[in-house]
Amino acid sequence: MRTVRAPATSANLGSGYDVFGLALETPADVVRVERAEETSISVTGVGSTYIPEDPKSNTVGAVAEALGVTAHIHIDKGVRPSSGLGSSAASAAGAALALNALYDLGHSRTELVSAAAEGEALVSGEAHADNVAPSLLGGFTVVTDDGITQVDASLSLVACLPEMVVSTRDAREVVPSSTSRAAVTETVGNAATLAVGMTRNDPDLVGRGMDDPVVTPARAALIDGYDDVRAAALDAGATGVTVSGAGPSLLAVCRASDQRAVADAMLETFDAAGVESRAYQTRIG
Ligand code: HSE
């Protein structure tokens, strides 16, 4: 038997759609695997009633198949499904790591990214790896078709999760299929600023680099209260705020000394909009 903890993640960070991601210290899924003749799955924890236990419909079933093994896989969910915090990716990454250890497959964490991404394909229709890569590797990750770059960045964060559901498939459908040259220039500049900021653990550069004129405005419209919550977090000291992954969570970057105030401002503003929420005061994991 093997048990691993797989962290939540936040993808995109505004300017890095399907490219940037980072691991969060909390929350996390715990995945336990045992040898078995056929793959079976059980799920407990946050939102577990919404998660299919049929291996053909569950991300971890796809991961076991990609690795060519069978097992009983138990997932204890700490990351709420459809939260924008890489819930399916945490389970997929945890299963990949645990199965790799259980069967002594000898894959590196980087090699496991593609197996874990097969689980993502089942959920969103595309095998994008911007959540599974940071869940497996930790830190800040840049995923492109040519490989993965990882940085052990260190920053304070608030991830605020409202009690609403946005499906990844729906959130991908609203992304514009074309944009202007000016928006491309702005996005490249912001993404470069953010990446440099991560190498310097600089919350101002990272926050500034999270601005995104293309994907985030389209997705913010799916989240009740987004504009007000973002403005409140910035007023409370956040250096940048954006949609976490496909939403509905918002991710704020801040200084450690502002973390409590930023979290309180986001919770209070969602509350004023009639939306319950919870805030994770966390760091890059
Ligand atoms: N990059 C993905 C998206 C992450 O934003 O759709 C969600 O799984």
Structure description:
This protein is α+β, with helices and mostly antiparallel strands. Helices cover 39% and strands 25% of the residues. The chain is built from ten helices and ten strands. The strands form two sheets. Strands 1, 2, 3, 4, 5 and 6 form a six-stranded mixed β-sheet that branches. A four-stranded antiparallel β-sheet has the order 8-9-7-10. Helix 1 links the parallel strand 3 and strand 4. Helix 1 packs parallel to helix 2 and helix 1 packs across helix 3. The relative contact order is 0.17. The model has no long low-confidence stretch (mean pLDDT 96). L-homoserine binds next to helix 5.
Identify the bound ligands. Answer: L-homoserine
Number of strands: 10
Helix content: 25-40%
Instruction: Provide the succession of SSEs.
Output: EEEHEHHHEEEHHHHHEEHE
What is the arithmetic mean of pLDDT? 96
Morphology? globular
Radius of gyration: 18 Å
Strand content: 25-35%
Largest sheet data:
6 strands, mixed
Structural class: alpha+beta
Distance linking N and C termini: 25 Å
Task: State the helix count.
Answer: 10
Low-confidence stretches: none
Enzyme class: transferase
Domain GHMP kinase C-terminal: 197-271
Function: Catalyzes the ATP-dependent phosphorylation of L-homoserine to L-homoserine phosphate.
Main location: cytoplasm
